[in-house]
Fold this sequence. Notes:
382 residues; alpha+beta; Aminopeptidase; 2 domains; 7-stranded mixed β-sheet; 12 helices; 35% helix; 26% strand; globular; Acyl_CoA_acyltransferase
Amino acid sequence: MTTPLHVRPVTEADHLAFVRSRPSASFLQTPAWGQVKTEWRRESIGWFDDRDELVGAALVLYRQLPRLTRYLAYLPEGPLVDWESADLAAWLDPMVAHLRGQGAFGVRIGPPVVVRRWDTAAVKDGIADEGVRLLSEVPPTERSQVGARVVSQLHELGWRPQSVAGGFAAGQPQFVFQLPLRDAAGEPRSEDDLLKGMNQQWRRNIKKADKAGVEVTLGGPADLAAFHALYVHTAERDGFTPRPLSYFQKMQAALGAEEPDRFRLHLAHHEGDLVAATIAIRVGEHAWYSYGASSTEKRDVRGSNAVQWAMVRDALAAGAAVYDLRGITETLDGDDPHVGLIRFKVGTGGEAVELAGEWDLPVNRPLYAAFAAYLRRRGGSS
């Protein structure tokens, strides 16, 4: 970077225009996501070059420290800048200076950069090998030079990698599972090709759902209550804390207002009974499976597979390049209950992806140290 970049607040309209100018961006970096996270103060910022043209953007979420007007500035899966740059300081330093001026005691970023990939065969081999416990112990199918350079530069610039999932900033997964929807030449894959890439059980379950008469439709705002009831049922069965209905209502309203097909609710019914439901989000060429719910009853009609296949087809028809099934844990230990989720996602024929992860920069070291101690007392939970 030969000329200095300047960072200043931008309107949500300019922020959204920048997102639309890119092939894709994380939905966590859209202006609408700031409207969903109402417990945080939000700000859209932009990077400007020497011609005063907008060349980067970010959604910043500010979480206040208890009893102090100081904030953790959090950029989930962002910022949207040139991560291929050999001089990341030119991008990050003016950002940090701006955030310091806003009262930030620390900054947390999540570079949207791939570090390593493992194809389906590599993941299956790792699961089958009793001597392998973690995905990182399996030789990757692909290593990213850009990802390695980003990680190296962040270390050199004093950023600290965050390994704790969840936490004060509700951290995002470092390992995800993705299904490529384009071939090596960049052409859209056919539905037949995608089905052939799935394992035999997935193909069998999709056919079984179709034969049983499972119907998948798109729902609207009035259907969110039904989704939420099934989601609460799923949470009770699987042992996680569900979000309130109001959270999903905010998601649908905010994301839907930004783009008509940003938020899509898929409902799988069998003989009038809701057996599975999911929320999909798409930004440009990237589609995410965001939330899912399924009934304990009628599991034999395979509503979960039917609704997943409907979302894959929907993403393909919309021109998406990737269908993202979001987070997986790194464990490949057959005795770990989390490995079942990996097996389910591996069945799609996609690939496991390691991202650069989340990184913190202490701006005010005493306050950041107090914040770290606060996290430890809370057990890292938000």
